[in-house]
Every structure is written in C-alpha cells, then in structure tokens.
From TrEMBL:
<feature type="domain" description="YMGG-like Gly-zipper">
    <location>
        <begin position="26"/>
        <end position="67"/>
    </location>
</feature>
<dbReference type="Pfam" id="PF13441">
    <property type="entry name" value="Gly-zipper_YMGG"/>
</dbReference>
<protein>
    <recommendedName>
        <fullName>YMGG-like Gly-zipper domain-containing protein</fullName>
    </recommendedName>
</protein>
<dbReference type="InterPro" id="IPR027367">
    <property type="entry name" value="Gly-zipper_YMGG"/>
</dbReference>
C-alpha cells in the first residue's frame, strides 16, 4: 500500500512539472511542486528535508526540460 501511494504521488508530481510559458517559469514551478511533493513523500520515511531537496531538483529539471508545447497548464500565479 505504501509503495502504491508513493508511486501515485510521484507520477502526479511529474505531471505537474511543466507549468508556465518560459523555461524559467517551468523550472521554478516544477521545483516548487517537486519540493512540496518530495517533502510529503520524505516525511513517510522520516526525512522530509532530503525528500524536499531531491524532489525540488527533480521537479526543476523536469520543468526545464519540457517544452511549452508538451505540457502547458496555463499562466503561473506569479505572472
């Protein structure tokens, strides 16, 4: 059950890494979403800080590597 929950959260985080129009927007929003998701997953294993760092790095990389035509969830809230 625990592995299924982690897999669902991880796939949801990967699906949300592409928010924004520019590469910087997608990297920033992906990093924020990844850090939050990583902290939540890391708290299950007792180390939310490490989970936030790993999730933030993965989310920022995923956001920076996606193109605006592959995943576009609209204008970011800070713009």
């Amino acid at each position: 059950m625990r592995k299924i929950t982690l897999a669902v959260l991880a796939s949801a985080a990967l699906g949300l890494t592409g928010c924004g129009y520019s590469t910087g927007d997608r990297a920033a929003s992906g990093g924020l979403l990844g850090a939050g998701t990583g902290a939540a997953i890391g708290s299950f294993s007792g180390n939310a800080g490490a989970g936030a760092l790993i999730g933030g790095a993965a989310g920022a990389a995923g956001g920076a590597l996606t193109g605006p035509d592959s995943v576009n969830l609209g204008r970011p809230a800070w713009r």
